[in-house]
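Predict structure. Input: Protein ARV, 240 residues.
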Amino acid sequence: MGKEVYRCIECSDKASELYRDYSNGILKITICDSCQKPVDKYIEYDPVIILIDAILCKAQAFRHILFNTSLNNYWKLCAFCLLCEAYLRWSVLHGSEPSGDPADIIRYTKEWEFYGMFGLAALELSAFCGGVLLFLWLWVGALQGGSLQLGPLLRALLLSCYGKVLLVPVVIWEHEYSLICLGLIKLFVLTSNSQAIRVILNSCRRLSVAAVAFGFLSETCAVRACQQLPCSIQDLLGFQ
Ligand SMILES: [Zn+2]
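Output follows.
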């Protein structure tokens, strides 16, 4: 019996392999001992189908991505999403008109205000992740006496922020409804975050929703605290 490093996407039971190679070109998908279903049917699927299922927040797709793949570029994804968010906020702040000129984007990156927006977006993300992890650490670790691995949780939280990539089309095509789009994208990202926590902890939906709500609350508090500072970041950057 090999080391159980994978998870069944149906019941979240541990598994030692996703498929067995019979070396003469025959591959057989492993069947879960617990639920008698294929451990991970997605290994046969096209990545687009997996992405669609992930967008639909299917727990199976989340389990496939978080447990049975080795996506380690989540920091790059996170930085890219923050850049998009910073650019969108910057353009909303200045009421910029849509422009198809690529030189505009280069000009914007030279603006200090843009980096200020990037810093604020990073701060909000840190406050959110910190709030979620603190809540789960207190609830699962301290109150229920369970063990909590923060590394996989943080990875799941950052990966499940992939919805922020939707900011790219907002940046490119739309400025008039940017705030509404931001709100909808935020709702989608929070839903994905909740599903990711639920999958990682194999917990009930209420716990993951409560953790995300606490994270959102701490994020809001961080934003308010920044605005209340005697010398806020906005003042430093000379906004308003
Ligand atoms: Zn199973």
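The chain has ten helices and four strands.
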